[in-house]
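Workshop exercise sheet. Pairs work together: one partner reads the sequence aloud, the other fills in the structure field after running the prediction. Swap roles for the next sheet.
Pair: D.N. / O.F.
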Amino acid sequence: MPPAPGLVDRRVEITGPTDKKMTINALNSGAKIWLADFEDANTPLWQNMVEGQINLADALDRTIDFDSPEGKRYELGQQLATIVVRPRGWHLDEKHVLVDGLPVSGSLFDFAVYVANCARRQIAAGLGPYYYLPKMESHLEARLWNEVFSHSEDALDLPRGTIRATVLIETSPAAFEMEEILYELREHSAGLNAGRWDYLFSMIKKFRSRPKEMLLPDRNSVTMAAPFMRAYAQLLVATCHRRGAHAIGGMAAFIPNRRDSELNAVAMAKVREDKEREAGDGFDGSWVAHPDLVPICDEVFSAVLGDRPNQLERQRDDVHVTAADLLAVSRTPGELTEAGLRNDVSVGLQYLAAWLRGSGAVAIFNLMEDAATAEIARSQIWQWLHAGAVLAGGEAVTRELVVRLADEELARLAEVEGASFDAAAYEEARQLFDGVALNDEFVDFLTIPAYARFP
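Structure field:
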């Protein structure tokens, strides 16, 4: 099917949670699309889930505004991004809504509340209810979603194809089923996205029984230039464009630091290089995590697109990717270092402490960390431990080393944060961290034991 209204030109997409401030900033950012995130950038507190849905309805009604504690007022401008909602994955429940005494799927809850309350609001604005579907591993999941969409359209008396969905290819199994996933969603498909961060997490998770063969270097050194990531990205573009579907690039997670111009310049250059690679590969647009990155992404893609809304005509017949290419993790350049291990430990602890306090998108070391990036950090620690990895300095990665680094990082955070240091939150975060990074068995998702701690 042809692209839906509001999804024809997707050169810049911004991601973020659905609190009032982010809702207004994202819609005003100049991006073409806002991924309104109920998943990785959100902590699924009941209040967050309900207020987020209210904020989306209020934004569509143009009744949303926000006054910050500092006295700054936020209101909607004239040109707004198209809202695309990312519900939770199938693996997460919504414990506050029961059917036959059992919790409903968080994914279905998030989808249903939005489509019931906002579908007609979006249609009245000339758009429609659009979604991003996360964590998919099989075309069978796409088939189930297609049935959900068709049932909902029938129940709401909407024409077939009103609901559209972009699938995040962010698991290793899904990379082998891109064609099938597009086929199953053919009545409702809006393309595929290269969900790079969860994809790295999935490579560790899915091949955890082969940690030495699939050993990744420091988390922050693995870029889209790594051979297995290049294969994945180029295959996604070729697959999408062969089917007339959009291919959307991955997220730039850098958070601008206005107090450090040198750091800012280096980071912005890396963001530009990343987006230039994607635009050159044929992607139709890409993600950013901060409004200050929208102009860079827009400039890079506009230089390639010109007056065209996308690159769907670019077929990439030159791309020939094999299964071995997708699994060539051992060819990834980079080292395993103590600094990288320490970063994993610190990010894991800081993110979990913030998540437990209700924030799912957290600025740490000038990067926007969400559940996906935190998953890479904790799973990398698990992988290095179980592979018997040796760091560049010659020290073996052991449980004792990780525990020592965690102790040191907590002491450093207590010193840096001073009176604002939440000892109770960090103690709970440490318990969770130990459970998902140091456990003998690999925990599928850190958010499952974390969510169990909420009432």
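Discussion prompt: The chain has two domains: 12-323, 335-451. What would you look at next?
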